[in-house]
Amino acid sequence: MKKTILFLTTILLAFSFQSCEDFLELEPVAQGIAVDNTSTDSVLYHTAQEVEAALAGVYADFKNEYYQLDYFVNGDAQSDDAYAGGDNPANFQIDDFKLDATNTNVSRDWAYLYSTIGKANTVINNVNAVDDPALTAARKSEILGEASFIRAFMYFQLVQLWGDVPLQLTEIRTISVEILPDIYPILFPPRVPKEEVYAQIITDLEVALANVKPTALHKGYATTGAVNAMLAKVYATQEPHDWNKVKQYCDAVIAGPYSLLSSYDHLWDNLHENSSEAIFEINYNGGITDGNWGTKIFRGLDWKKFNLPSNDLVKAFDDENDLIRKNASIIFLDVTGRWSDAHWPQTMYPFINKYRNFNEGSNQNYIFIRLADILLLKAEALNELGDTPGAAALVNQIRTRVNLPNTTATTQAAMRLAIEKERRLELAYEGHRWYDLKRTGRAIEVMNNATGVGGVNLGYMLNQDRLLWPIPQAELDKNTKLIQNPGY
């Protein structure tokens, strides 16, 4: 409590030394909190331009370090698809399931996600108060829907990584001693059960579904298809899974303006961006101000890269004779004299090949949701609902594109494994694998049986406690209402 009081006192003192004329701070003070201490004006945004700029700032966070780098470390290096690679001890902890509460990735990811939530909260809670005639009622609704989609997207990341988390839906406009009793619970919130977090995610996505546009300038904006896809993913992840809802929202996506590209490699050749297959794709223009530096983390010969492709995944491609997706996903190069790694020989050293523009100021887009993902998610729903032949038809649709024969799975149990394998090979290095293993209850078994060089077990000792991350120690220190996850 003494630490909390000291922290809050420091905030209040900081505000007391700022003049109302020159101080404007819209960054979160705590989880999801935005503070504007400039005046007592009840209206935050006065013009359409101000609101649009605020929304653009929320979207811009899809280009921060979390989504350029950590999103893929968390989804792939934490799985059997990749080793940590590189030389970052924080990533090694993630790869080996040896995290602690002081891990720098854990701290920054919590901060990044709640920062974006804070920005989204400010837009959601203030857009309807703008009286600028240039901001139509229809556009206000669209902005509300887009910001709600982004807030849901961020909370979906949080709840999958940490489970129960603080639920912040309100921004604080002013901090003062007089209103301390009212704002204290908002500044220092407890964790809420993950069921409540999922309920809010669904509420936000339902708001988004009712308000966003069906299409947009490019796939980097929230659209009806992106919202439906997220709803399908959420219902497939929360416990208990609602497979009827998964099917409903997958069907809504499939009925939209989407189709598989004829060539799998076209997804990654940088000549077919914002394609018919893409549902939500972050667009980069390149250069100093809008370059995707994340691609240099995964590919290049200048230094040892992160997310080193695993022997286990390469074997899975080879066992399936899946040359098309293997070659599109992984490239082997000679790194003799540059660096070494116990997992691979220098003469045949693998890199991720899906992100091929890894130059300075790269304009490589990141596809976060695409149709193949949703087709396989629908296959999963159909199989769980008893329609294994229907599931097989969808799996075969994905396999046909890469010249593979139809699946041989005919029972529900066999089809579960067939879909799991197909998602692994189809979506490799797109940040899905770890979360797929978790939501299907397969993470512990799969990871503890993962093999490396020569088929030798890698010796992971994953247990139930390590399926969730620790609450960052810095957050525990300043908020006594937070309780650490078991096992940390």
Description:
With 488 residues, the chain is mainly alpha-helical. Among the domains are: 2-6 and 26-212 and 468-478, Alpha Horseshoe (Serine Threonine Protein Phosphatase 5, Tetratricopeptide repeat); 284-364, no CATH class. The protein contains 19 helices and six strands. The longest helix has 26 residues, at 137-162. The model is unreliable at 1-30 (pLDDT under 50).
Provide the fold topology:
Elements lengths: L1 H15 L31 H13 L4 H13 L4 E4 L3 H8 L7 H23 L10 H26 L17 H8 L6 H18 L12 H14 L5 H12 L23 E5 L12 H4 L7 E4 L1 H9 L3 H7 E4 L15 E4 L13 E5 H14 L3 H14 L10 H15 L6 H7 L3 H6 L24 H6 L10
Antiparallel strand pairs: 1-3, 2-6, 4-5
Helix pairs in contact: 2-5, 2-6, 5-6, 6-8, 8-9, 9-10, 10-14, 14-15, 14-16, 15-16
Task: Produce a short descriptive summary.
The protein has 19 helices and 6 strands. With 488 residues, the chain is mainly alpha-helical.
Based on the structure given, which CATH architecture of the domain at 2-6 and 26-212 and 468-478 is correct? Answer: Alpha Horseshoe
**CATH topology value of the domain at 2-6 and 26-212 and 468-478:** Serine Threonine Protein Phosphatase 5, Tetratricopeptide repeat
Largest sheet, in brief, is: 2 strands, antiparallel
Cα gyration radius (Å)? 23 Å
Strands of the widest sheet, in order across it, are: 1-3
Number of helices: 19
Q: Judging from the principal axes of the Cα atoms, what is the shape?
A: globular
Poorly predicted regions are 1-30
Beta-strand percent range = 5-15%
Could you spell the SSE succession in H and E letters? HHHEHHHHHHHEHEHHEEEHHHHHH
Structural class of the secondary elements? mainly alpha
- Distance, first to last CA: 21 Å
CATH class of the domain at 2-6 and 26-212 and 468-478: Mainly Alpha
Percent of residues in helical segments? Answer: 40-55%
Number of strands: 6
Average of per-residue pLDDT values:
92
